[in-house]
Every structure is written in C-alpha cells, then in structure tokens.
Amino acid sequence: MKLTVIVGQCFGLNPVLGVCDIDTSKLRFTYFSVRCVYALIAIVGQTVFLNCFFFIKYFNETDTSVTSNSTLVFYVSNTIITILFLRLAKQWPQLCQYISKIEAADPITDTTLVKKCNVSCILILVMAMLEHGLAELSGMVMAADCQPEKIYETYIVHSFPWINLHVNYTLFLGIITQFLNILCTFNWNFGDLFIISISFYLTSRLEQVNRKIVEVKGKYVPTTFWRNVREDYNRATDLVRRVDKVIGSIVFISFANNLIFICLQLLHTFANGIKATNSCHNPDERLLHGYEQAVYFTYSFLFLVVRSLAVSLIASRVHTASRQPVYNLYEVPSAAYCIEIQRFIEQIHGDTVALTGLQFFKVKRGIVLAIAGTIVTYELVLLQFTGITPTVAPLDDTPQTN
C-alpha cells in the first residue's frame, strides 16, 4: 500500500511521516510537519472557499436545482473525507506497527498483493484524471465559445459562481479555487481506492489461512497443527476488526457518497436528458458541437458505477475469505477430527468477520443487490418529490445566435 499512501499524501491525505521507510517504528504523526500543515491548509481552503461561500449562495436561493444539490453534497462530503484521513493519520502508525508484528509471526505469501494494489491505484487515478480532464474540457470549450478573449476567467466564474459573488476575481484566486477543486475531485476517488487496497491485504491474510488447510487436505495431521492454524485465523480476524475500527468512518462516507451521487446523477438524467448545450455562435464551431458536457457526464456516471461496484465487491471478499476455511474443515476425515477443528468450525459460524460502515452495515456480497434496491427506491421517491417526469430529450437544441 506504499504507493497508495504516498499518492494520497500528495493531495493532503493521511499526513504521516516515515511512509517510505521499511521500519514501521519510524512512522509517526505530528501536527508540526509540512505534510500536516498542507493537510490543514487544504481543509481550511475547502471549508472557506468551497463550502462556506456555496452555503451562503445555496440558502439564499429560492429554487434549488439538482446541480446545486450535487455540488453541495460533493464539496461537503469531500471536506469530511479530508478531515477523516487527518484523523486516520493519528492512528496509522500504531496500526502499521501491529500489522508488522503479525507479519513477523506469519509472513504473507501472496506474491501478487503489491501488484494488485499498485495496478488498482494507477487504474483508478488514470480514470479519475480522465474524468477531471473531460470536466475541464467541457468548461473551457464553453468559455472559449462565449468569451474567447478571457477564457480562464470565464471558466472560473462559470464553474464557481458563488465565489465571485463574495470576492472579486483575480488570477491568483482562480488558481487557488481550481487547485482546491482538484483536491476535492481526487479525494472523492481516493476513499474508494484506499478501501480497495486495504481489502486486498485483509483478504490475502485470510486466504493464507485457508491455503494452509487445503495443503493438508486428506492427510492426517496432529492437533497442534489445527491449533496453530486457528491461532493464525484469530490473528487475521483480529486484524480485520482493528482495521475496521480505524477506517469504518471512511467506509461509511465512501458508500454513502457513491449511493447519493448515483441517485443524483440518475435524477439529473431524467430531468435534463443527455443533449447538447447551446452555443453562443451560429454556426456552432465547437469540436463536439456542444456534446462535451454530455460526454463528460456519461463517462462520469459510468466511472462512478464501476468504481462503486469494484469497492463493494472487493471489500466484500474479506467476509467471503473469512468463511472459506469452514468448507474445507467439513472434509477432514473422521479419524483426523479433533476438538480444535470443532472449535474452529464453531468460531467461524459464530462470528461475522467483515468491514463495516461504522457498524451500520457489513460489507458482504449481498450489499450490491441491497444498494441497487436502495437506488431504485430513492430514485422513485426523488422523482415524486421533485415532480420530474422522465422524458426522451431532444438530440440537440436550437443554437443561440450571437
């Protein structure tokens, strides 16, 4: 997970010192470090520029739209994520040192673990960069079409209109605002990435216990072997619980975020359809003739769904791996059956090992269907509440003449 943590620190998340060192005893958190100061500045910036100003505009509006609701949820939730990762940083050194003790007693043998974490990190970040690039392209094309003499200023004022209501635009203010927006966009994706990487590690530890049982399948082994395997399983499940106590709040906000945004983006589609935006010129000289925003919105929604599915399915593998040993224990011959095996089976059946969202829900395989059902229910409620009737949107709008 080293790559994941280092990348997160570039955006003010988990500001722990010593992450590049192999010795976990050198990990430490202090408020008087450049990384922590950077994280605190990011929190203050997001709170003041992106939240406070928008709150003032939002509550002064008599009629709020789906877009304004999405913007409000986006900035508030991502500021909360940044704060949660600052809180995580205080507990991260102790957690890593505990993991180091487990590794010393029972080194992990999964040679693909680092590769899976790194590939997931790179893949999600590349897809997130593409999503942000499409959003920037959509805004820049609109600005270039309507105000070609001051493209960047028009883009900032159009993208963050609530800031311009309170302070006058300057180039420095535009750069700061855009930088904070990039931080929020990254944080939105990093929560899922972090959970995926943690889940890969926890699953590998539990699967390692199951592999030990599979290796002696059909063989007679002494009671001490089963006692040692059960102790390994206890260490792995205890690790899951310790990790869950530390990252439970991040799991909760991540799943809630994904659920809310899927609902809001579906509602946006029902309300507005997928269509071209109006042009300030006739004929339309834009590259995609106004479909830049439609391309961004479609990609963003698909990426959100895929990312939500990935984090749900990968995190649920922790629970699946914790149940796997029992099926092999059932196949132990009667002659080799002992009290340790019986205790092992009873322990697996009597305990639920899984990541949770602050104990409100457990991440199991069935959570995907539960989320899908919740989305359908909430979407019907939102459609009734807003009075939106799904219609087929026209393929294009009549362009405005200059």
UniProtKB/TrEMBL annotation:
It is found in: Cell membrane. One of its GO terms (molecular function) is taste receptor activity. GO terms for cellular component: plasma membrane. Keywords: Cell membrane, Membrane, Receptor, Transducer, Transmembrane, Transmembrane helix. Pfam families: Trehalose_recp. The chain crosses the membrane at residues 37-60, 72-89, 169-202, 246-267, 294-315, 367-388. GO terms for biological process: sensory perception of sweet taste; signal transduction. PANTHER family: GUSTATORY RECEPTOR (PTHR21421), GUSTATORY RECEPTOR 5A FOR TREHALOSE-RELATED (PTHR21421:SF29). Belongs to the insect chemoreceptor superfamily. Gustatory receptor (GR) family. Gr5a subfamily. This is Gustatory receptor. It comes from Euphydryas editha. The lineage of its organism: Eukaryota, Metazoa, Ecdysozoa, Arthropoda, Hexapoda.
